[in-house]
Amino acid sequence: MKLTDAGLQNRSVWQSAGYTLPSYDRTAMIEESKRNPKWVHFGAGNIFRVFPAALQQRLLNEKHVQSGIIVGEAFDYQIIDEVFAKHDNLTLMVTLNSDGSISKEVVASVASAHKCDPQFKEEWKFFTELFREPSLQMASMTITEKGYALSGADGSFFTAVQSDLEAGPTQSSLFIAKLTALAHERFLAQAGPLALVSLDNCSHNGEKLADAVKTIAREWHGRGFVTAGFLTYLEEQVTYPWSMIDKITPRPDEAVKRMLEGDGFEDTALVITEKHTYTAPFVNAEAPQYLVIEDAFANGRPPLEKAGVYFTDRDTVNKVERMKVTTCLNPLHTALAIFGCLLGHTLISEEMQDSDLKRLVERIGYDEGMPVVVDPKILDPKAFIEEVLTVRFPNPFMPDTPQRIATDTSQKLAIRFGETIKAYLADPQLDIKSLKMIPLVYAGWLRYVMALDDELAPFTPSPDPRLGEVQAYVKEIKIGDTGPFPQLEKVLCDPSIWGVDLIEVGMADLVLSYFTSLIRGKGAVRSTLQEHVHGRTRSV
Q1: CATH topology of domain 329-532
Q2: How confident is the model over 449-473, as a mean pLDDT?
């Protein structure tokens, strides 16, 4: 059982082993995608392969569409070489259900996959021609939260961004500049409107995307690379729908690999690229998934509502996104990631058996987050968080790790916790001093960047663009120190990390108090949690 077009020809072997195969004519789909391309997606990672790609497969199976998705990878080109090219752009989707059952489906909706960068001349030519096709309706992307950042805390452009601004559209290196360059090709060809759709897990993702693209375009205009007409095109003919995406997609798991090998599935090689992407021909993921998108598509769109996607207005997307990203899932994930690493846990599901950590996330979600959640109506916040805490996180068959979730934490804290703090400050009925668990997580992250676990053994923190910067402030602090810690003031007042100036809003003293407790000595993380988390949780 090889994951290639030729390998799928003996369908009975796959089906007898419990694998679901595509029911459409894949050759016809690929040809239609060439003639009338409608959807291009950038970011060939695991979540794309088992969520958007699987949605399009459902539409193809049910004959709602005839074309597939064209994929561009603009960052980690090894994914194209090692996963897509070797397996004819096929993916094995392994769904890990909470009852221990699994589902296995071959996803074949990717029509073609290419490296997206001017250094690959033929492939770049392919994308410039693609964006000149009037049939193209949407360019979606999963490039992670940090992919939209152009400048640092001081407002100056990052060095790589500045280089792209100086080089112009034909020599772009970063994804946002490449996307803007491709939109410029569409403008020059007068090919019509387009939707640029962020499917990344960050607040106001459509707004972030629009700001980034328009900023690049304005800077190019100021340097004479593009005309004012292009700026007008980006304002009047390009839309940037907001979205909320939710599906937990861990790294490929060894246990899943062994299970597939037992079926006779041959392509189980785990790939770790030079850019530290963990991938494989298969993707293991949970069953629950949610995708809510603002229905603002300037040139039409696939009928994804027939595959379970919610299309609605921007305000509703914003409410759903805030519910998930700032209260009901993401903050809880980050809290488990930080303290899980400190306490030596290696699975999120294992952490949910830890009564101290379970109580911590219950209090963050129910006690501190829920009072500021606005019900979006299309999804029930109480049912959503209940599913997260009782079904999704505790799923023992999900090989998700706190170490994976801890990646880029400095980029997540402001959204996942800072937005709740802001909501408390804005509501006269709420008292910011009632927030106890969020400051504990903030203190926990400062303890985490010290890179010593609760047994005082060194560990390697997960990759984070600001890790070294923050570690410089804690490097002189030793376990057992009692403060004060004036060196932390510059960190505590940085709203780009926390979402607010913790000193200004009066939360810094509590964070420092918790931090002092967390560094008392060996076992101080556990004892601090036990001392503070076991309050009453509101009923749902």
Answers
A1: N-(1-d-carboxylethyl)-l-norvaline Dehydrogenase; domain 2 (1.10.1040)
A2: 96
